[in-house]
Design a protein that fits this description.
It comes from Microbacterium foliorum. InterPro entries: MFS (IPR011701), MFS_dom (IPR020846), MFS_trans_sf (IPR036259), Sugar_transporter_CS (IPR005829). It is found in: Cell membrane. GO terms for molecular function: transmembrane transporter activity. By secondary structure, the protein is an all-alpha fold. The chain has one domain: Growth Hormone, Chain: A. It is about 75% helix and about 0% strand. It is built from 23 helices and no strands. The longest helix is centred in the N-terminal third of the chain and has 38 residues.
């Protein structure tokens, strides 16, 4: 039966219709877009206003402290991944996804009504960090569930392109966050943006969450989980089994994502936005044009992410990744020379070139991760690998970049840091076998338990 479910059958033996699959893809895209909009709107605001409104009274390093709060949330992603992985493998993917959406939306909306340092003093940054932590817990649980809902519903030959649907939620979230912020800089320019304009994108989250919740309610549970539930084969302690049998695999898979995430967080973490618009920095561009350029690069990121997912179904996940690492390295070395020209068109070109590699090292990730882990612990495996990779990669990438520039007065060392992270991702990819098309259902746990790490026979 599990072989059938991998090719479009439900556990009861009926064929999943094209409409069913479209509904899954649509719900996955909408849900992850809303989640990442909420997550990225914070990072965008850090680069533009939070340092001034919440952290400036704390001293000369207010910008560094503000960017550090972006990274703090990543430290709590593993908690979200542990909770979501445990309950996702026991209660289902859909249940977890509903709760992560609500949690993220509530935290984001509360940031939109939070008083600033000028009003309530040190309590303001403390509450801001606490709400960012809640966002981190939600993000830690969201990705794994969205990935498995997409990939486990997909026909075997189309897992790459189906798996790209939750992945495009990231560039769509960035596009939406940057676009809304850019719109508000036009509606509420100058001091008005500092006074109230920045709050509107956070409050908009309430509407987006309602839409995402409605769409996700219409989607059926993952067929793989339904099979596990019918057979009563769900792991009692999935996280314990994961670390006992697959620890090395989790670490290597985490490094694959870290190589992408560190580079991606130059924009999703708000660094480029803050660097390019800093009035005391070397460029000093206006907020609006920079946000539009970032939004434009999100479009190229979206397109290359979809292309990479589609291509991975034809040439394999591993080969697609290797091509992506090469292109990402090219993007890393062209980014700052173009950004530092101070020309908005060249800044956009630098970001667009970078997103080609980012798309190719992100599009295949959902299918790659889903095919690495056995069915009974798959939610735990993909969620925790992702969360650890996020800490090693993007968590403090903006903070590190800010500290490097402050210490050296140049972005050259930032380029080498990003190149090193890209190399780490390439090495991790080379350590994995390609498992494109491996059966995902519970009938094939023995085959799935053969380690995909080169040189190891079994997990």
């Amino acid at each position: 039966m599990s072989g059938q479910s991998q090719d479009g059958f439900t556990p009861t033996g009926t064929i999943a219709t094209t409409a069913d699959r479209r509904r899954v893809v649509f719900a996955t895209v909408v849900g992850t877009t809303v989640e990442w909009y909420d997550f990225f709107i914070y990072a965008t605001a850090v680069g533009l206003v939070f340092g001034q409104l919440f952290f400036e009274p704390l001293g000369a390093n207010s910008a560094l402290i503000a960017f550090a709060t972006v990274g703090v949330s990543f430290l709590f992603r593993p908690l979200g991944a542990f909770l979501a992985g445990h309950y996702g493998d026991k209660l289902g993917r859909k249940t977890v996804l509903m709760w992560t959406l609500i949690l993220m939306g509530a935290a984001t909306a509360l940031i939109g009504i939070l008083p600033t340092y000028e009003t309530i003093g040190i309590t303001a940054p403390i509450l801001l960090v606490l709400l960012r932590i809640i966002q981190g817990i939600s993000a830690g649980g969201e990705w794994g569930g969205a990935v498995l809902m997409a990939v486990e519903h997909a026909p075997k030959a189309k897992r790459g392109i189906f798996g790209a649907s939750p992945q495009i939620g990231v560039p769509l979230g960035l596009l939406l966050a940057s676009g809304v912020m850019a719109l508000m800089t036009a509606i509420a320019p100058g001091d008005q943006f500092l006074q109230w304009g920045w709050r509107v994108p956070f409050l908009l989250s309430v509407v987006l969450i309602l839409v995402g919740y409605y769409v996700r309610r219409k989607v059926e549970e993952s067929p793989v989980f339904m099979e596990l539930a019918e057979r009563k084969e769900k792991a009692s302690m999935p996280i314990v089994q994961l670390f006992r049998k697959h620890l090395l695999l989790v670490i290597i898979a985490a490094f694959v994502f870290a190589g992408n995430n560190a580079v991606g967080y130059m924009t999703t973490g708000g660094y480029i936005q803050g660097y390019a618009t800093n009035p005391e920095g070397p460029i000093g561009l206006e907020r609006g044009p920079v946000l539009v350029a970032v939004a434009g690069s999100a479009v190229t990121w979206l397109l290359t992410t979809l292309l990479a997912g589609w291509l991975s179904d034809r040439i394999g996940r591993r080969t697609t990744y290797i091509l992506g690492w090469v292109m990402q390295l090219v993007g890393v070395f062209t980014l700052f020379p173009l950004v530092n020209t101070g020309e908005i068109g060249l800044l956009f070109a630098g970001l667009a070139i970078l997103t080609i590699g980012l798309g190719f090292t992100y599009g295949p990730q959902a299918a790659l991760y889903a095919e690495l882990f056995p069915a009974s612990i798959r939610f735990s495996g993909v969620s925790i690998s992702y969360a650890i990779g996020a800490i090693a990669g993007g968590a403090f990438a903006p903070t590190i970049a800010t500290a490097i520039v402050q210490a050296t007065g140049s972005t050259q060392a930032v380029t080498w840091y990003l190149a090193g992270m890209t190399g780490l991702g390439l090495v991790a990819t080379l350590l994995l076998r390609d498992r494109s098309g491996i059966p995902l259902g519970p009938d094939h746990e023995e085959e799935q338990s053969v380690s995909p790490v080169r040189g190891l026979a079994r997990a």
